[in-house]
Amino acid sequence: DEIGEEALKAHGGLDKATKSGIIKEFIKEKGYSLINEVYEKEKGFVFDLSGGSVSSRTFPEASEVVRKNAKKNSIVIGLFPSENIEESINILMEREKEGAHFKEMNHPELLTKVDKDTRKFPPLFKNFCNIIIYTKGKSPEQIADEVIAFLQR
Asked: Residue 61's pLDDT band (boundaries 50, 70, 90)?
């Protein structure tokens, strides 16, 4: 998001570009190349990839390139609410209905989107991530401890 925010500053930032639809043209032209440039130039960093960057339905080819680059150049840690998909949908629904991107969506429309988006991750994560950490009921410190324990192995 930080990379997108900076790149879209002239359009009012990531949130405004998303709402106005400018984001689609931006991604089509160069959006995912920004992520790939970081992988080519930087070493020893933490990259928080958004779900959309690795699983876009609009730009599936670009997402595939991002996943391949991440897998080749990184240790990929997937964070997901719960092993239970229905529970994950409920948790994410509560979070998304408070998000700025979705304030204008009605409840059924948002639930359909969250359901569809959430269900794509378990099979994607199985092939993409080196580890999946289920976050429900865990503090940020507990999640960080799991990451550290994994990295130490």
From this structure: confident
Tokens of 40: 């080519």
Beta-carbon contacts of residue 79 (< 8 Å; ≥ 6 apart): 132, 133, 135, 143
pLDDT value for 133: 97
Under a CB-based contact definition with an 8 Å cutoff, are residues 54 and 66 in contact?
A: yes
How far is residue 117 CA from its own chain's centroid? 11
Residue of 124, 117, 79, 119 whose CA lies nearest to 101 = 117
31 pLDDT tier (thresholds 50, 70, 90): low
| Cα 66 from Cα 63, distance rounded (Å) | 5
Query: Closest by alpha carbon to 120, among 31, 28, 18, 52?
Result: 52
| Helix/strand/coil for 143 | helix
Q: Where are the alpha helices (DSSP H) in 74-106?
A: 85-96
* Sign of the CA dihedral running 5, 71, 30, 40: positive
- Structure tokens that stand for 130 in this block: 């080196």
